[in-house]
Amino acid sequence: MSFLHVLYLIALYPIEYLLEMIFSIISKISGNTIISIVILSLVVNIIVLPLYNRADKIQEDAKDKENKIAPMVKHIKQTFTGDERFMLLQTCYRQNSYSPLNVMKSSVSILLQIPFFMGAYNMLSGNKLLAGVKLGPIANLSDPDALITIAGLTINLLPVIMTLINVISSFIYAKGFPLKTKIQMYGLAAVFLVLLYRSPSGLVLYWICNNLFSLGKNIIKKVIGRRKKHLAANHVTGVPVKNDKRYKAVFSFSCLTLAVYTGFYLPVLTIASAPEEFVNLYNMASPILDILDSAAKGLGLFLLWPLIFFALASEKGKKIMSYVMFMLAASAVLNSKLFSNDFGDISNYLEYKDSPSFTLKAKLLSLLVTLGGIAVCFVINRFGKYIAPVICLSAAIGFAALGLANVGKINAGYVEAQKSATSKAEFTLSKNGKNVVVLMVDRAVGPMVPYIFKEKSDLAKTYDGFVYYHNTASFGTHTNSAIPALLGGYEYTPEAMNARSDELLPDK
């Protein structure tokens, strides 16, 4: 597992997973791929709207602070030189709580777009739901649109429309901003044009919807911005919300609990129940690698991105988020512990072969437990000032310790599986009596076998008494699952073996 792969799992996979989940749900409900793309764009923009609003506020504050000290900085640079200029500039920055690094704040909104762009690109570029879908003159949403052809030269029109909308939106948004900010935004529009020009038209359609949403948001913000300035001029201000670090601790430790519990503890517990069954027999990879993969996903999904949203939230928003995350962590742990059930076969990638299903009774009980957990969490978070952070941190440490205690068992199972894979098979054949040899034609065309024996007379002599059973079928897709039934009978078919849930696979 390379460093770049881990970075992808932590930073980009959560966004890609979120987009894929939303797109899949919408597609099942609507049954129309084009409508699903439009709704996906709308839903994602609504979800990240608070994030972008806070980023815009940070940019505006940085711009205002920079404009405030600009005359003084200009005067110092024109009047003084050397160490004297440096000391005066540092004093000016300190008195106004400004740092030259604040220029990075003007790029917050742009930087936030990059991971969401990459997540959408990965999710929609190879999406099978786009294949063969038509949109007016566009024959296939999984290919570039190729709407214009001039003298044999094909021009993709959708990326051009996307860029025009992006430029108009940037023009409205960047009005009053420094020239460097405008250059950044127009440059980003050009970069998107280059990156998406030959991309699937379905992906470009998604980004057009994003840009239309952004355009509408910028127009509305300009109107609201003028109203806010009018209120500020008349001294109409809101009530400041007190910054309480306790909420940050509750939120952070709740996120950590979810990340450790779902990304590390549960996978370890699952694999430790039968380590040999989770060993990849084709490359003999250790299941611990799958645990590391899951842990990285958990850190990104439940820790990194929630903390980014939390850092950009207002003080009132942080308070609400701390309550929600504390309740979510408690509900997740309660439900998985109280209602864990037999959900069918699970692969060594920790994915169920069939989607788990729940009865109405199980859903109602789960809802009841969740509501009870939410009520208890609300009381604890509201009245127990320092209890909630302690509970969350203790839970995270406890689940991590329990998980680590089972890692040794997993490694022992892996070592045992390696011994079985590397041991030499020995067959004792009779020199006097009959030896029965069964040939399993794996991944080959069975009907060709008798013709091969007819053409190769040496084979027929070697395999004296060969009988070809033409009307046969395999009970499994691979040799490992197909051969037990051949040697042991119907009770060793995959279905019959899975029914004996009280035995481990090596024992079966």
Radius of gyration: 31 Å
Q: With helices defined by DSSP (H or I, 4 residues minimum), what is the helix count?
A: 16
Sheet with the most strands: spatial strand order: 1-2
N- and C-termini, Cα separation:
33 Å
Helix content: 55-70%
Number of strands: 2
Share of residues in strands: under 5%
Q: From N to C, what is the helix and strand string?
A: HHHHEEHHHHHHHHHHHH
Can you characterise this structure?
There is one protein chain. By secondary structure, the protein is mainly α. Helices cover 67% and strands 1% of the residues. Strand 1 and strand 2 form a beta hairpin. Helix 5 runs parallel beside helix 7, helix 8 packs parallel to helix 10 and helix 8 runs parallel beside helix 12. The longest helix has 47 residues. The two termini are 33 Å apart.
Ordered list of secondary-structure elements with their pairings:
Elements: H1 3-30, H2 33-79, H3 82-95, H4 108-125, E1 148-150, E2 153-155, H5 157-173, H6 179-196, H7 201-233, H8 245-272, H9 287-311, H10 315-338, H11 360-383, H12 387-422, H13 448-455, H14 457-462, H15 479-488, H16 494-499
Antiparallel strand pairs: 1-2
